[in-house]
Task: structure prediction
Amino acid sequence: QVQLVESGGGLVQAGGSLRLSCAASGRSFRNYAVDWFRQAPGKEREFVAVISWSGDRTNYVDSVKGRFTISRDNAKNTVSLQMNSLKPEDTAVYYCAAASFYRTVPSAMDYWGKGTLVTVSS
Result:
């Protein structure tokens, strides 16, 4: 069992930055790939970024490439999402999720956090 807790959300102006963290507890966290998803009001949950268990592979949705960076520290059981040059359309609840395989779809995730709200004002 893996428990995930997100933090770092908040209100920021367009062009600003936020750093989200996902703290994991439970066994074998380092064996899981970790994704960030987001869900805006009235929209489906959307893949944002993924990092492999070792940290050597990452992938991003096109809309955040060059602005967001995912990283992990397995010694601290944390995964971070650095978000720069934020836009109003980045406003959403952001969720971290852990998966046994390197995947980017919600149905493939084994564990989910409860989310943290990011609001970007124009």
